[in-house]
Amino acid sequence: MLSIRDVAVSFAGVRALDGVSLEAHPGRILGLIGPNGSGKSTLLNVVAGVIAPEAGTVLLDGRPLPAGAPHAVAAQGVARTFQIPNLARRLTVAQNMLAGARRQPGEALATLLFRPGRAQRAEAAAVRAAFDMLDRLGLAHLADHPAGSLSGGQQKLLSMGMAMMADPRLILLDEPAAGVNPVLVAHQVVFLKAMAAEGRTVMLIEHNMEMVADVCDEVVVLDAGAVIARGSPAEIRRDARVMRSYLGEIG
Amino acid sequence: MLQVLVNALVYASEIAIIAVGVALTYSVVRFANFAHIQYAVIGAYASFALDRCGLPLPLAVAVSAALTGLLAIAVERLVFAPLQGLRPEAKMIVSWGVALLLRSLVAAVFGGAAQVFEVETDSHLVGDAVVTGLDIAVVATTILAMTALHLAMTRTRIGTALRALADNRDLARTRGIAPERLTALMWFVSGAFAALGGTLFALETRLQPDMDLQILLPVFAAVTLGGLTSVGGAVLGACILSLAQNIAIGVDFGALFTSGSWFLPSQFRDTIAVAAMVLVLCLRPRHHRSSGLR
Amino acid sequence: MTASAPPLQLDAVTAGYGPLVILDRLSLALQPDEILLVLGANGSGKSTLLKTAMGLTRLAGGRLALAGEDITAWPAHRRAAAGIGYVPQTGNVFAGLSVRDNLRMGAFLRPAAQAAAQAAVLDLFPRLAERLAARAGALSGGERRMLSIALTMMAEPRLLLLDEPSSDLAPAAIDLVFAAIDRIRRERRIPVLLVEQNVARGLALADRVVVMVRGRAAATMPVGAVTSGDLHALFLDGSVGAGGPSQP
Amino acid sequence: APAQTKEPIAIGVIANLTGTDVKSSTAMVRGVELAAEAVNAAGGADGHPIKLIVEDSQYKTQEALNAATKLFDVDKVPAVIMFGGSSLELAVAPIAKAKGKLLINTSSSSPKLGEFPGTLYSILPLDDIVGKALGAWVATQSVKSVAFVVPNNTFGIGLMDASAAAFEAAGGKVLTKIVYSEGQPDYRTDLQQLLARQPDAIITAGYGDDSRTVFKAARGLGLKQSWYAAYPSILTVENEAWMNGRLLGVDDGGLTGATAAKVAAAYKAKHDDGEPTPHVFYGYDALMLIAKAAAMPAGLGPTSLEAAVKGYDGATGPIVWNANGQRIDPPIDIIAYKDGKFATIGHQ
Amino acid sequence: MVDFLVFAVTMIAVWSVVALSLNLQFGLTGLVNFGQILPVGLGAFGPAIAAQHGLPIPAGIALGLALAAAAGLVVLAPVRRLTQDYWALVTLGVAEIFRLMMVNLPAVAGGADGTTVARIADPFAAMAIALALLGAAALLCLRIDRSPLGRMLRVIREDEMLAAALGRNPFRFQALVVLVSWAMAGAAGALYAHIVGYVAPSSFTVAETFIVWTALILGGPGSLVGPLVGTAFVQLLGVSTRFVAAWSGLPFDLVANLRLAVFGLALILVFLLRREGLCPERKVVTRAVDP
Ligand SMILES: Nc1ncnc2c1ncn2[C@@H]1O[C@H](COP(=O)(O)OP(=O)(O)OP(=O)(O)O)[C@@H](O)[C@H]1O
Ligand SMILES: Nc1ncnc2c1ncn2[C@@H]1O[C@H](COP(=O)(O)OP(=O)(O)OP(=O)(O)O)[C@@H](O)[C@H]1O
Ligand SMILES: CC(C)C[C@H](N)C(=O)O
Ligand SMILES: [Mg+2]
Ligand SMILES: [Mg+2]
């Protein structure tokens, strides 16, 4: 279980998060929505250890996650995607995917030199998993292309694929559907539900309200760095404050 | 003590005016142009030759600055422009090749031996420090040139466009910014500044085809200390470096603490300067690369 | 320049990146004050189409005309000066510059109108007014998108190329942006080439639809003719039922 | 001249033709050229014309090694005349020794050069000899206290140590030692300490371009002391009026001899850049000795070289080598700068 | 001529090891190091210090390697606080500090004059040892290059934040790379000392680092043969211009300058004609394995 308690962050005078608390549970998908600039990505970065909060703590299964140490957080089984994808641009799509795989013996020099067989077996397994995932994301035909040459939507998909390769306990997704075509969004929905069904915790930032309504078990709404509403997707849609600040007339 | 400050100021001026050119080009083309230092040398030699031809010194410097600016544009067109998209380290190495080529040509034309400007200036005693008219001219020229450049970069539309071009070339083009014209202007300005700085440096010291090797380290150290891309930063970097170097050996540490007098042996001058630079670099506030954050 | 010529015409355009060819003999004409919606799977070449219209790709063949004038050989900045406005999908703001300086660059071609234009876009996106001094790179994803749209609007273009303007935006902000596009089109009679993955919103706004499949305009049709079966097919493999080869 | 029918002898020259010390290096090579021309005009070394192969060392160890191996292994030269910093020559010397070649040093003065007897011979006197002469002489000039201003290299330090010892042995007092890094744009900061210490005189050594900057800084700071220098004639006078009568020192005594005069005349006939600098003479003597040794029946080698030097009256005066091939007992002149030129005012 | 070629090959082999070590840092990991001459110098000063103080030869070599590796870790310490451009200058600065200290502290290893060390007298033996060292270094690099470790190093090169998000501590990987590559450069330095038979600070200037950089970039960083080809190219270009110069028959001082001009021109032309360097980074193809 992920629990965020009273987290506050400010940047050069801007209060980006102002005492946010929320919980996300294994097997469930938590949606995080809110107007642009309300602090959603900032909150995700706090959980992921990229930003150390001024106040507050983040606990995963009751143990605090290291603040400001993204690699240590990731090592605890937390994977994340970026709103603007970070990729190893000159490496191929397949290499990016393989880099996502956790626990690779071939990354230790000693294993490489003295037990190369072990490294090779693990690598073969990772390659299988990577191509499996690429197939599902519709990127398999691009496996040997540089990641930097992918289209905007494809980069989003790759970013998500890399996060999945890590076999995470907690997965943090920052607008995975933005720029992705509707058919693949439908795939993503299936995919996320399957992840949750396997007992993982999912936190999803998304502006695509159909997708949110479709996959989220619970939704938290941020505005100006504070939680203004929480509940089921249906409840949220009826909330007047949310209507005003976030959904607008049409939503 | 006052003398130490005077020396530091003069040296900082010479370094800074060359350093801003490096920062300016770095900010737009994103590589450290080693040939820039050689532009300074060529500018100094051009001023020298024109001065020898009988031109009044200020005019000689102006003509030399213009010529060097054009040279910088020519090098950009012939060498750097075709290499667009290459990794910055490769461009840096190419610029080193350009520097080598230009240096050998200067040496072939003017000879490898040192030359000096024949300028005689008066000395004034300010407090207990000696200040020459040349010192004052050097510092004043630098301050003027820097202020003008700083204002041009931050206050004018063209300056902002240059920074925009540096930031995102394709996007800049789609805003109607013509990169070729603007970069040509940028190269011209940085070449001209290099020539000016090189001439000031040579006026205070001497001319030598390989004087770039002596200027290189302090200039790049100043630019790096100042954050690589800003005019103000380069000036600040030059001041820090110059002060560290001059104070380290110019100050009587013995007299400061006891009655005796003890100077740091001056052969440690460079060591101290470099050490100060490393220290400042390590202690300066961490630079967040925000691109990684979202 | 003929009065009857379409505002933007692509004629058998082949273009790509380096040796890579993405657009394959693509022909397309944008009609006066229409909104032409470009749909297609990820990687089908939509962004490449817009970049090619703007002059940012390597052109390997074909011809482009702006209101009848041949612009095939024009560099991007000249096209911008001729009135093409472009909102890119990625890399859409000057990340190292302040929001204020970004806006200044929006009006690069019309320095005299800078103040008025800035006031107008800040009116549309009040969120940006609060962040004028911030580095654009520090903005949130949605704020960046707003800034990028604002930048383009400030240039008062004669023709708009919009690459997924709604992505990263909150629903309320999308309303704002789409309303603004519609208004500009109607008031200033500006044609728009619009790429959207938000198909429903796109269809609601557009007049015609062009479907991209592997670098070709697989079909062009009026908005009313699009069925949901069509959409599904085109995002899966581009085999749109009625379409066949493109008809400009 | 008699017809040169025999095969030419190739002699290598390594010098810093680019980088630092270009001026002195060029002068040295010109001296070698003058000597080669003289030898060839006189029919060569035992009929063999001398052919020079000049290589650049760029003042870099690796390049000096490349140049040396090329000369030894490709051009098969039996001897190399070298102008380089001590560190460059010390890197080349072991190779020359291993290959049984001769290395004639015209510029460096590190005592370590004496570690290659039979291979490395110096035309230049060692620093301790000249330094000792300088220190002892300054002490006789009613100078009670001195400061040293020398470059931070083998030459500067070696000279300073020897002359400080001699000066102190004669009862003088050394107030401070300023060891500067070469090539600095300005030495005002370095020299500033002198204002506080006020020595009776300054002892210096160095090279033209740096010395010019040093003198300029001293003049700017208003220093009034006299400058006593080793080899004053290689220093560059910065301001004639200010320097008039203020620069004195000990120099190689041979440079005023008859051979030197002949060489100087030949130099001025060939090059139009004024008086030859001392390195022209060092280079000249180096090649002359090689040619003389090569003309001997035994051919060019350590034995013939050591024989050739006996009785040779060079442009730098008579040359005496110790057992390690290093020059001792050089003739020493006292030089003073007056009215725009250096004049010999005595001998030691 | 044979001797000359043997010497040329020996030097190419030694400097290739240095280029390989730089490639591990820059080509693979993206660490921009302008002070790679420091570990070479430290490696060489091990034997020099040993010679000066009468220690046996193996002790000197071990000292050199230990100094190089240890210095690497010290220099790496601030890397976490600095972006690449700044680290580049810190390494350059530290290398200069070391060189200046050696110049000014004659008690350590002879000061500016340097120290004589035992010289491998047989040129063929020297070449064999140098080639053996090169072989070992190349093998190690190959192993790292074509492995998950090499891949993760490249990810760090492209985007440290990404590597961290994937659960890798970039600093740990960087430390490993610096340790390995500085020890490698140290070994090259120790060998260089015993081949030349003489160690002085002037052999380890910033200019030397730039020559290695030139070789690396020219050859093509990120590839394995790149550094070797680049080093051979640079060394042979330097040597061959000597022959061209002699053949031209121009006055010696002009020739010396033109030689460098040709060198600079060649450098520029290579890049204008082959943008990715002589040996571009290998295109990786990942094959889906069938069980
Ligand atoms: N590094 C930073 N420096 C300064 N301000 C920042 C920084 N990062 C974020 N901000 C500001 O903090 C606020 C919250 O940003 P955040 O990215 O969390 O928003 P968001 O909710 O993810 O918005 P969006 O939906 O547009 O992505 C914004 O106003 C943004 O400009
Ligand atoms: N800079 C580039 N270099 C090489 N190939 C590229 C580059 N940009 C895009 N591509 C390739 O061109 C094809 C079309 O890309 P484009 O960006 O036009 O797609 P798109 O239709 O806009 O997709 P999306 O909906 O994901 O944005 C893709 O296969 C992509 O891999
Ligand atoms: C003639 C001398 C002043 C030369 C000096 N000994 C040197 O090392 O170069
Ligand atoms: Mg966000
Ligand atoms: Mg796109």
UniProtKB/TrEMBL annotation, chain A:
Keywords noted in UniProt: ATP-binding, Nucleotide-binding, Transport
**Xref: Gene3D superfamilies:** P-loop containing nucleotide triphosphate hydrolases
Q: Where is the ABC transporter domain?
A: 2-249
- Give a yes or no for keyword DNA damage in this entry: no
TM region(s), chain numbering? none
For the keyword rRNA processing, the answer is no
Return the SUPFAM superfamilies for the record.
Answer: P-loop containing nucleoside triphosphate hydrolases
Q: Which InterPro entries match?
A: AAA+_ATPase, ABC_AA/LPS_Transport, ABC_transporter-like_ATP-bd, ABC_transporter-like_CS, BCA_ABC_TP_C, P-loop_NTPase
The UniProt family comment states: Belongs to the ABC transporter superfamily.
- The entry's protein name is ABC-type branched-subunit amino acid transport system ATPase component
Annotated source species: Labrys wisconsinensis
Automatic annotation (TrEMBL), chain B:
Keyword annotations of the record: Amino-acid transport, Cell inner membrane, Cell membrane, Membrane, Transmembrane, Transmembrane helix, Transport
Extract the signal peptide range: none
Q: Which Pfam families match?
A: BPD_transp_2
Write down what this protein is called.
Answer: Branched-subunit amino acid ABC-type transport system permease component
Locations listed in the record:
Cell membrane
Task: Spell out the family assignment given in the record's similarity comment.
Answer: Belongs to the binding-protein-dependent transport system permease family. LivHM subfamily.
> Which residue windows are transmembrane per the record?
6-24, 56-80, 92-117, 129-153, 182-203, 215-240
Task: Give the highest taxon in the source lineage.
Answer: Bacteria
Organism for this UniProt entry? Labrys wisconsinensis
Q: How does it sit in the membrane?
A: Multi-pass membrane protein
Primary location group: membrane
UniProtKB/TrEMBL annotation, chain C:
Q: Which domain of life is it from?
A: Bacteria
This protein's record includes keyword Cytoplasm: no
Cross-referenced SMART domains: AAA (SM00382)
Residue ranges of every copy of the ABC transporter domain listed in the record: 8-239
The answer to whether the entry has keyword Nucleotide-binding is: yes
Please name one Pfam family that this protein belongs to: ABC_tran
Tell me the SUPFAM superfamilies matching this sequence: P-loop containing nucleoside triphosphate hydrolases
Q: Print the keywords alphabetically.
A: Amino-acid transport, ATP-binding, Nucleotide-binding, Transport
Q: Which family does it belong to?
A: Belongs to the ABC transporter superfamily.
Question: Protein name, please?
Answer: ABC-type branched-subunit amino acid transport system ATPase component
Q: Which organism is it from?
A: Labrys wisconsinensis
From TrEMBL, chain E:
Among its keywords, does the record have Membrane? yes
- Is Transmembrane helix among this UniProt entry's keywords? yes
Task: Indicate the principal place this protein occupies in or around the cell.
Answer: membrane
Where exactly are the transmembrane stretches of this chain?
A: 6-24, 31-51, 57-79, 86-104, 124-144, 171-192, 254-273
**Alphabetically ordered keywords of this record:** Cell membrane, Membrane, Transmembrane, Transmembrane helix
| Annotated protein name in UniProt | Branched-chain amino acid transport system permease protein
UniProt membrane topology term: Multi-pass membrane protein
Q: Which InterPro entries match?
A: ABC_transp_permease, LivM-like
Q: Where in the cell is it found?
A: Cell membrane
